[in-house]
Amino acid sequence: MTKKILSLVLAILFVALAVCSCSGKSGPSGSEAPASSAPTDSGTAEERDEINDYVKELAAGVSFNGETFTYIGKDDQTYSNFPIKEEETGDISSDALYFRQRDIEEYFGIEWESVRTKDGDETGERVINEVTAGGNSYDLASGSTMTVGQFLLNAAVIRSTDELQFVDLDREWWISAMQDCYSIGGRQFFLTGPIVTNNYLDSTCILFNKNVTSMFSIDDAALYETVREGKWTIDKMFETASAVPVNTGGVSGNGVWRYQSPNGISFIMSSGLSITKFDEDGYPYVEDSLPREISDLADLLCPVFSDNSETIFVYIAKGERPEQKFGTDHLEEFFIDDRVLFRFNVTQDVISMRSQDVKFGVLPSPKLNGNQKEYCTWAAIGYDSAVYIPKTVRSIRLTDVMLEAMAALSQKYVKEAYYDKLLRSQSIFDLESRDMLDIIFSTKVYDMAGIYDNGGMNGYGDFLNAVNDGIVYDNGNLASGYKGSARFANYMAKNLRKTVDKTD
């Protein structure tokens, strides 16, 4: 992938970001009691039978006569959408993917072919090269929205969902929030849900150290109940953390930090705020001046997250690595050593943290305040993934049916496997953490705002640096930086319509 293509991709998709409000059209539905809208356990016999019947009914209405279905995507231990082997191995996530593939081959009488790539760049390049050469070797692709999705959309080599007849986007195995937040000109090119394993790894969350809560007489059960009651807000987080004295002992002392590695974009999302707007034709644009609500949020967060006695950062100052300040780049060591109360993570980190000798609980990201009706969980850019339909598939009917069958069977197998994977160690987790994951996964929102900095566009530079890096916050710098990026974003928006039109 050339630098020129990458730069254009980032620029175009920057303006296509959809930071969706949880309380509006683009947000997840729900009520004041968020647990009521949480997904149920996919492992019940009744639910499994219903999914089996649905997929069998799909299969009864089509005939593919032994056709081959070819699925291409990244394959590694963490992100793979392919089984380790095409057989049962005892690994819960691998077996879930194998069972999905086995059932599809059996029900539909097709040959399944997996094309495994080393990374998203290779996936994107192979699909682009195949389509532009007129080939039709790939029937479906998967990968990160920030790499694979951007590459394929910019190259105009993928189809929108307009012509799909079998995919039912209203079913529980498709996440409607991505359809809204990644819609461009009213058209949808990215689809997600349990069909991609990252659906259970990409969600922002907060881990709290149970030894620290015990140390400072913070009631774990009360924390969970606050979430269930819909009262887990930024102010409530600050109030809870105030039980921990500010850390005047520094790195070499015995002090405890209240917070570790907060993420600015995550707080924008969890507050239900929207940056990108849509015009009457459904194309995105950015407000010319910094929205007041974003400025107010920065004013709320930065005094706390800019205080080194309260917060330990990924970076201490521009150009200074953690090892220069702390003697290590692995700041999770402070959480493991019971020196941090709240650690800001994505759910992928929950799995890795499980292997550490630390007891912790899981909480969703907080609401802005008590007026916010629903929790909003950011599917963090760089972690979120989707599936994509190449323009030159051999049979759109085959891909259409396979998409729906894969998604339904993923609800049966993959969801259950990843819940088990996240919650397997009961010595670390408790029953309440299951409830918290239900809330996290049922309130997801998507956006492309995270590519601002990756694309060299620093409209949120000062805010993000203040929140992430401990740099003293200056609201004037934030506003001026935003204006510069907004001008460029809206300039690039003029090209977006042409890019989407190329996919016809």
What does this structure look like?
The protein has a five-stranded mixed β-sheet, with helices on both faces. It has a five-stranded mixed β-sheet with strand order 9-6-10-5-11. Helix 1 (3-15) crosses helix 19, helix 3 (92-108) packs antiparallel against helix 15 and helix 11 runs parallel beside helix 18. The chain is built from 19 helices and 14 strands. The protein folds into two domains: 34-201 and 383-424, D-Maltodextrin-Binding Protein, domain 2; 204-380 and 445-493, 3-Layer(aba) Sandwich (D-Maltodextrin-Binding Protein, domain 2). The chain is globular, with a radius of gyration of 23 Å. The protein has helices at residues 3-15, 45-60, 92-108, 120-132, 145-154, 176-181, 210-215, 220-228, 234-241, 264-270, 292-305, 322-326, 332-336, 347-354, 396-423, 431-442, 451-454, 461-469, 475-501; strands spanning 68-74, 111-117, 140-144, 158-159, 204-209, 257-260, 276-278, 284-286, 311-312, 340-346, 360-363, 377-378, 385-390, 444-445. The chain is an alpha/beta fold. The protein is 43% helix and 12% strand.
- In CATH, the topology of the largest domain is named D-Maltodextrin-Binding Protein, domain 2
Beta percentage is 5-15%
> Class by helix and strand content?
alpha/beta
Overall average residue pLDDT: 80
User: Main sheet: which strands, in order across?
Assistant: 2-1-3-13-4
Mind telling me the CATH class of the largest domain? Answer: Alpha Beta
The main pleated sheet reads as: 5 strands, mixed
Q: What portion of residues is helical?
A: 40-55%
Count the helices. How many? 19
- Known CATH architecture of the largest domain: 3-Layer(aba) Sandwich
Find the CATH superfamily of the largest domain.
Answer: Periplasmic binding protein-like II
Number of E-type strands: 14
Could you say which overall geometry the principal axes of the C-alpha atoms support? globular
Uncertain spans, ≥5 residues at pLDDT below 50?
Answer: 1-21, 23-42, 452-473
Question: Could you give the distance between the termini?
Answer: 23 Å
Q: How many structurally independent domains?
A: 2
Query: What is the CA-based Rg, rounded?
Result: 23 Å
